[in-house]
Each structure stands twice: as structure tokens, then as C-alpha cells.
Amino acid sequence: MQRHLISAADLTRDDAVLILDTAEEMARVADRPIKKLPTLRGRTVVNLFFEDSTRTRISFEAAEKRLSADVINFSAKGSSVSKGESLKDTAQTLEAMGVDAVVIRHGASGAPYRLATSGWIDAHVINAGDGTHQHPTQALLDAFTMRRRLVGRDAGLGQDLDGRRITLVGDVLHSRVARSNVDLLHTLGAEVTLVAPPTLLPVGVETWPCEVSYDLDSTLPKSDAVMMLRVQRERMNAAFFPTEREYSRRYGLDGDRMARMPEHAIVMHPGPMVRGMEITAEVADSDRCTVVEQVANGVSIRMAVLYLLLGGAEFQTPSTPAAPARTAEENR
Amino acid sequence: MSKTLIRGAKVLGGEPQDVLIDGETITQVGTGLSAEGAEVVEAGGKVLLPGLVDLHTHLREPGREDSETVLTGTRAAASGGYTNVFAMANTFPVADTAGVVEQVWRLGKEHGYCDVQPIGAVTVGLEGRKLAELGAMHESAAGVTVFSDDGKCVHDAVIMRRALEYVKAFDGVVAQHAQEPRLTEGAQMNEGVVSAELGLGGWPAVAEESVIARDVLLADHVGSRVHICHLSTAGSVEIVRWAKSRGIRVTAEVTPHHLLLTDELVRSYNPVYKVNPPLRTERDVLALREALADGTIDIVATDHAPHPHEDKDCEWAAAAMGMVGLETALSVVQETMVDTGLLDWAGVAERMSFTPARIGRAEGHGRPVSAGEPANLTLVDTAYRGPVDPAGFASRSRNTPYEGRELPGRVTHTWLRGKATLVDGKLT
């Protein structure tokens, strides 16, 4: 069984389906008058947030509390980190206080992997977003949302996303959400297409298990779900695109474009949305847009991940250690 | 002065011969030489090379004595078989005045493990704006002939042109750290398949290649020589090959790590693999080996870059760039070039001693192993093979990418002008 959740690429199909199924069970807890399970009573989880994040931290915190864990919130601002303390010392300090799991959000790609593999600490490590690398629980909650909407809440149990056509639109280059989604959706059998201006796609994207297109309009009719990625306005200052207006004209999702999508297709967004940039208010507020659902599903998914990692239950398949393809083997 | 007889050494990998050192000089090379009055070193088939010359070392003193000093760095050099190292200018203060270069030069002399030839900064404070007093550094006791802003690129085309022209007056050379700064903002690793996956900022090959292309054209235009530091891509090899075919006076170096390691290693996010220029792809590695073999790349230089443990024991983005290399360079070259059949030991001597000394105008170094020459020598047990143990390093820093890796070859003896600095693998 895996000790950590670092990258969506580390999950097998069976791991991922188990997490999604477990999350469905967790979701039922939210429908009860008392939204709490005793599973993690006496276990301590620290939310170690080196980057500002409201929704992800609150989502993890809600999940931890619903599982009865003791929760410590740590934010780098105003802490010893701003006084120059290293990641290693911060982590070791927290572990010395008896932490069972560390949920980490960090601006540096690979920081959670370092934490999990450097022998600094023994706690379970859950990646809550690292730099432009991975955000595995986001990909899981997205997959959960897609399965519910496209396959069905009950019909989806035990199922993956075989053959579903998922389109991701926007700043793929700087997006950990995109990387995690490509990995996980591929594992779950979906057909992924990335749509972006060429400047916002990484060199090397041609080796990813997905299609790439520069043309949104031709992709929309062939999509079961369209996920809009946030595009930061500052990007245009670095010449990734000429102007905000031109970006939204070519890659933004408005009502007209949404009408080109199949009737059953949904619109997704990991948030926070930049209305008027990648998505218009009309689309964001429409019934086809699952943004709010995604937030609710995020709590269920994080409960499932914490439960499976810490609760003693095992993933169904004996999976490989974290990052199987990432061992330091050199090619000669 | 004392005499030393090295008996049965394969000089430059040839047939076993005896080499007699008297005082600071090699006095005889032949077979069956008399050992009378001499201390005898039984070479037993080890390979004898001219003392190695490193055109690219960071000794960190003054300013970062926590990572290396001239003393610890020259001890590491002697351990690795070097008798002369060129110390880069990016110290604190920067080696951009006669005062600083003389200090470094004098420290090397005092310690006596390895000659230290300081490199002068091209521009004041390595800032790329104003030429440093290149002439004053040349005329100082340190006699600087190599100038470099290494760590930073002389990116302004006019400053680079002027520097190339100016040092002609005293046969100097500018060693360029080729890195287009705008193309490498936020760069963390080679840009390609691996960086795309890891979400680390890319350092594209074109950022190196475009600067090399510009600089060989500038050197051609003004009739100067230019040296390219740590060339790392297959495309750079093509440009240098083209420039040489045109008769442009360009020389180039490759580091041992770029001959062996690839960016696949970065998947571990272990900052011990973080270096500038970054580890490239297997295709680049093979092109670099081929270019070193055919002479397109002239020399191997270590880019020995010591860093304290805390600067590597952290997340990738926060880590310092660089690797120590003096004590493993020859082993890596044997592994990648000799044991693969690409180069013989005479070729190694050419690329790690003769040519670097010639590029840097180092007098008394990079000389043939023959009577009348200064006794700067290195004895290598080429049959040895074993794991790299950083705990045994003489360097103050341990940031090696080879920890635990089995490598061939071990330097057992080093002589600096007849004086043994390394005996049976131990520093004197």
C-alpha cells in the first residue's frame, strides 16, 4: 500500500476507482445530521501551507474534521519559515509534536516528494499542490465529478471513465491541475485533449498521453466535459498572449461556444475563476457548470484519501512505491 | 633536492617505463633506470599522466569559506590528480581587481598543493555593464590571462565584443558562460520532456546555443579567441564544429557530469543533480562524448562547485546549483571516454592537461612526460573500480552526484614540481 499521495501518476486504475468509490461512501456522511465519522480519532494531521490557498486548505480541514482527526493548521506567513527556517526543519519540528500525516501545499515543484522520500520525517505525506507539478486530490475530485455526471452516482460505482472525451482549456504550462488531470484521466481510460495557445503548452507536451489542439471551436463538439483552467492576467506581461481580450476571444468559454458542446456535456473549473477571462458569467452560472459541486466533492475525495492512507485500509491493488517512473536511474 | 624513481609506469598509457625525478624536474625517462639515491615508487602498470589542469574550478575563497577554501580546494585538486587549477572569479568580493586575484594566487602558492591560477572577471561585479580592469589583473603577480563572468553570461553583445578585442593586447582569452538570461528566467532544469512532467522551469538548449553562435561570430569578426565554458548540448557541438571548420579561434570545454548524467535523474527532485547548465538528455551526452573524442570539444573542465550541505538538503527550487568534481573527474572520464573506447590515455592527457594549459597559457603545466620537463605528474590506478564515498573527499563540500556509484580509476600519486602532494591516495 502507498504511504503517500504525491502524484496522480502514481495511482493505478484500481487505486483511483477505489478512492472514487470510497468518496461516494464519504459523501453520504455529508447527508447525515451529524457529519462525522470516528475513523481518525486520536490521529493528528497538519495542514502545512506554504502558499496561500483558501479553498484547498478549508476542504482538507473539513475532511479531516469529519473523520475526527486532530487538525493543526500551519501557514508559512508570519511563521518561522518567513524567518528563514527550512522545509526540513519545519517538517521535523511538526513531526516531533506527533503528527501522523502532513498535507502540504508548496510553491516549489517536488517539495512534497522531497518530504516523503528524503528520510526527514516518517509521517504520511499528501500533496495539496506543488508548484506547477501536481495536485492529485484536485484531479481525483474532478474525476469524481465527471463520473457522477457522465456515468451516474450509483451506476458509476466500480467504473472508470472509459472512452469519455475530456477537454482541458487554458494555461497548461503553469498548471499542476492540468498535469494531474492528464495523468489520472488517462489512467481511468478517458480521452484527453488539451487546448491552449502554443505559448501556454510546455515543450515536451507531445509525449503526454493526450491530444493537443490550438483550436477550441473544433474541439467543443467532441467533448463530454470541458475544463477551463485559470489564466492569470499577469501572463500577458510575459508575452504569453497579446491581450486579455484576444485571449478570451480565442480561448474563453462563452454562451455561444457552450452551445456547440453536446447537450450532456458539462463545464468544469478548478477555481478560482477569472470571470470575463477564461469563462463568462453566463457560463459560470449555468446549470452545466459544476464548479460548486466540485468544491463539495473535494471534501468527500479528501476524506477518502485520508481514510485510505491513514485508516489502515489498503488500496485494492498492491501498488508500486511513490513515483515508480521517478527513481533516480540514469539513461546511458 | 630529493630524487624519486617511478618504476614501471605506463606513460600516457604506453609501454611501462621508469621516470626519474630530480628536484623539480624530470631528468630521465627510460627502462631499467638506476634507483640509486632515489625513493622508489613502484607503479606496477599504473598509468602516468602529466599533472591535470582544470580550467574551471570554484574555490569560493574569499567569501564562501564555509563551502571551500583555497586550501581545501587545492587539496581536493591534488587528490584528483591536478597540479594546476584556474579559480573562477565569482567570489565575494568578485575577483575583478588586481588585489583579489593576487590574494587567491598567493594563497595557492603558500599552501603548495596545487598551483592556483586566478581567472579575472570580465565586468565589474560580474554585472555585465562595465569592463573590469583586465590589464591590471594581467599585469599583477597573478598574471591573469583567462577572463570570465562565469555563473553569469556576458550577455551584452557590445561588452562581449570589447572584451574579446581588449584582451588581444596581452594574448588573453574570454571564457563565456553561455546563457541567454531572458530565455532562462526561473530556469530550474533542462527544458524538455522531463521538465514538462515535473513542472520545473525549463532551461532551453537554445539559450546556450544562441549565445555560442553569436560569440563565435564576434570572435571571427574581431579576430580574437574565445573559450566556451561547460558546453552542454548537441546543438552547441554543431555550432562549435562549424566555427572550427571556418577557422574561427574557438575552444570549448565539457564537464565530467555532462558526459555521464542526464536530466532523467531530476525525477528524484534531489538537488544534488541541480547544476548550471543543467543535465541534458542522453542524445546530448552522446554528442558531447563524440565531440570530445573528435576534438570539437577541446578539454574536460570540472566546474567544481562546492556548496554547503544545507544548500542541497532542501526542496529543488531553493537549492544551489553546482556539483563538486575535482576528485571524481578522472574517474568519470575513464568511465565515459576510455572504457568506452572513445579515447586512449594519450587523448586524456591531451584533453585534461596539455590543451587546458595551452588555452590558459599556464607555464610549466601541460608539458610532455620527458626529460627536462617540470615534474608535474599524476599516477592513476586504472584497474581500480569502486563506489564513490564523499566522506573521503578532501573538499570541504560533499555535493557530489556520484555518491555510492561505482566508478573506475583512482589517482594514487600526484607530484607538483617534484614534490609529492598525494602518496598512495593520501595527501601529504
From TrEMBL, chain A:
L-aspartate binds at K83, R176, R230. Pfam families: OTCace, OTCace_N. Its EC number is 2.1.3.2. Carbamoyl phosphate binds at R55, T56, R105, H135, Q138, G271, P272. It catalyses: carbamoyl phosphate + L-aspartate = N-carbamoyl-L-aspartate + phosphate + H(+). It comes from the Bacteria. Residues 163-309 form the Aspartate/ornithine carbamoyltransferase Asp/Orn-binding domain. Gene3D superfamilies: Aspartate/ornithine carbamoyltransferase (3.40.50.1370). Pathway: Pyrimidine metabolism; UMP biosynthesis via de novo pathway; (S)-dihydroorotate from bicarbonate: step 2/3. It is an enzyme of class 2 (transferase). InterPro entries: Asp/Orn_carbamoyltranf_P-bd, Asp/Orn_carbamoylTrfase, Asp/Orn_carbamoylTrfase_sf, Asp_carbamoyltransf, Asp_carbamoyltransf_Asp/Orn-bd. Residues 3-147 form the Aspartate/ornithine carbamoyltransferase carbamoyl-P binding domain. Keywords: Pyrimidine biosynthesis, Transferase. GO terms for molecular function: aspartate carbamoyltransferase activity. Belongs to the aspartate/ornithine carbamoyltransferase superfamily. ATCase family. Catalyzes the condensation of carbamoyl phosphate and aspartate to form carbamoyl aspartate and inorganic phosphate, the committed step in the de novo pyrimidine nucleotide biosynthesis pathway. Heterododecamer (2C3:3R2) of six catalytic PyrB chains organized as two trimers (C3), and six regulatory PyrI chains organized as three dimers (R2). This is Aspartate carbamoyltransferase. It comes from Streptomyces cellulosae. The lineage of its organism: Bacteria, Bacillati, Actinomycetota, Actinomycetes, Kitasatosporales.
